[in-house]
Amino acid sequence: MGTTRTTEILVGAFMAAGFVALFFLAMQVSNLSAAGNGEGYALIARFDNIGSLKVRAPVSMAGVRLGRVESIAFDEVAYQAVVTLRIDAAYDQLPTDTFANIYTAGLLGEQYVALDPGGSPDFLGDGDQIEHTQSALVLERMIGQFLFNQAQGGSE
Amino acid sequence: MITEALARLGRSGLAALAGIGRAHLLLAGIVAGVPALLPRPRLLLAQLYNIGVLSVLIIAVSGLFVGMVLGLQGYYVLNQFGAEESLGVMVAASLVRELGPVVTALLVAGRAGSALTAEIGLMKATEQLSALEMMAVDPVRRVLTPRFFGGWISMPLLAAMFSALGVLGGWFVGVGLLGVDDGAFWSQMKAKLDFREDLVNGVIKSLVFGVVVSWIALFQGYDAVPTSAGVSRATTRSVVHSALAVLGLDFILTALMFGD
Questions:
Q1: How many CB atoms lie under 10 A from the CB of residue A138?
Q2: Closest residue to B186, CB basis, from A14, A25, A28
Q3: Which chain B residues are within 8 Å of A8, Cβ to Cβ?
Q4: Are strands A58-61 and A111-116 parallel, antiparallel or unpaired?
Q5: B100-108 and B56-80 helices cross at what angle (nearest 10)?
Q6: ipTM summary value
């Protein structure tokens, strides 16, 4: 009987340790503890060029993460990128004239969507479209433009 | 001459097919034993002890050291790009997605799978399984079913322990020894790893590996030639086949889960 009891206790401790490890991974390592997983509301933003923006990239305002990029699609009529942003339900007071930019975190970092608040008294709701957007800055295009301007300046 | 070669090829092909068929029949028999297992949880308990508890030491030590090595190697590469803060992401992503499930499955196949094969094979060689049948006890239900589910339940728990201790090992080396920022280590990890995408997929992997490793180990034992040489060959085959199946399946699962 004694050995069975010890076995029971050890198996119990083993199962508990396994679930503690899973819980640790869920809470500390993955983003389960961060609020808003699939919840919140969706906003649509159309960009002429999204650079290398990826699904799940952060959406932030004033540097605070409000949500994530949920999906990226291509509009074959307007030749634009249609980006769906999933905003946490807690942040439901974004003005309708909010401005969406695509910036890069750091020099080589990943790209994210930065929202700048407008002044409208009305707020964006689920499925609404952000009208004012600015494309991602593509380095090659900027350098090309810079060289072009330099050349023009030199010929004058 | 040619007909003989053709016949040999056909024989080995048919033998392989028959083996696969027997393995599936055995799996069906094992799963059919679940209703008989439910009123006797003690049988499962003993196997959870044999397969799970006794594997904790090797899993814990391996996890810790794999995490520490990942921390050292990752730091070396990331430091060249000035991205040491991403060390946590690298360590956690490699452990949760790949190394946790795969290395755990390989270790369990070596530590517990081989033991299962040898045990069942010897039971067959010493005619204990036939003795059970004589007493109208189905050896598949009485002996194999608890072992199969013991292995299946243990696998994800062991993999979670492996990954968790690996992350702690990487944290110890990165933050403790190499001076990576503690806050950046954890916050970047949390920001980049997704619960559904990374953690749940890792657990699904180890559930699949749990089925494969236990199944192969039990089948090799049950199908062994009942002699000393036969059991020895079956034990070797059990470890080799488990390792090959785990690594092959891992590629397929990774392509399905993280392919896009």
A1: 12
A2: A28
A3: 45
A4: parallel
A5: 150
A6: 0.81
Mean pLDDT within B132-160: 92
Q: C-alpha distances in angstroms, B143 versus A7, A30, B24, B48?
A: 18, 39, 17, 13
What are the respective helix, strand and coil percentages of chain B, to the nearest 5? 90, 0, 10
Measure A31 CA to nearest chain B CA, in Å.
5
How many whole angstroms separate alpha carbon B197 and alpha carbon A55? Answer: 12
Nearest 5 degrees, angle CA A150-CA A152-CA A153?
A: 65
Distance CA B218, CA B207 (A): 17
Burial of A47 (0-12, 13-18, 19+ CB in 10 A): buried
For the segment B180-198, the average pLDDT, to the nearest whole number, is 82
Cβ atoms of B176 and B76 within 8 Å: the answer is no
Q: Look at residues A108, A1, A110, A92 and name the one whose alpha carbon lies nearest to residue A43.
A: A92
Task: Give the Cα separation of B163 and B66 in Å (integer).
Answer: 9
Residue B101 binned pLDDT confidence (cut-offs 50, 70, 90): very high
**Which residues in chain B have Cβ-Cβ distances shorter than 8 Å to A14?**
48-49, 52-53, 56, 154, 157
Identify the CA nearest to A31 among candidates B197, B191, B188, B202: B191
